[in-house]
Amino acid sequence: MDFMADMAELALASRLRRLSDVYWQAVTAIYRQSGVDFDVRWVTIFVLIARQGPVAVMEIADRLGITHPAVIQVINELEKKELIVSAKSEQDGRKRLLSLSAAGQAMLPKLQPLWDAFVAVNHDMLSRQTHNLLVSLQEMEAQLAERNFFDRVQDQLKKNDSKQQ
């Protein structure tokens, strides 16, 4: 019996985290098995830089919907591994523009077959679902973009308080 599944809505965040952990562990093992020194946490930023580079830190944060400090942390790791390089913007000297280094470019052909396999397996699993998880996630993200979870819970607590009085 899966106790988290039994908790349903109460354990939603925990179940999403558990699912993420299952993926991250498998992807990490696949990178290691393939002899690719790459961290699963880097993929979204690395792919964005590869496809859109040169790109600014704030643009990465905005495009991915993650915090500036989270972007900086990954960028620092990618720079330490010499997979990306940064240069000051000619238009705005305060802005750092990031692009793949020669080593980053050389890693792409090693990563692409793995990513293609990840996409194929995910596509197969999603196609077998009654309710497509990607669509459901998009719907949840849209609802939370309209009104965040914290504010929604605060409203619910107020409703509960008014019912008790």
SSE arrangement:
Elements: H1 3-6, H2 12-33, H3 43-52, E1 55-56, H4 57-64, H5 68-80, E2 84-88, E3 96-100, H6 102-127, H7 133-146, H8 149-164
Antiparallel strand pairs: 1-3, 2-3
Helix pairs in contact: 4-5
Structure description:
The chain has 165 residues and is mostly helical. It contains eight helices and three strands. A three-stranded antiparallel β-sheet has the order 1-3-2. The radius of gyration is 20 Å and the shape is globular. The model has no long low-confidence stretch (mean pLDDT 92). One of its GO terms (molecular function) is DNA-binding transcription factor activity. Pfam families: MarR_2.
Question: What would a concise description of this structure say?
Answer:
By secondary structure, the protein is mainly alpha-helical. The chain is built from eight helices and three strands, in the order αααβααββααα. 68% of the residues lie in helices and 7% in strands.
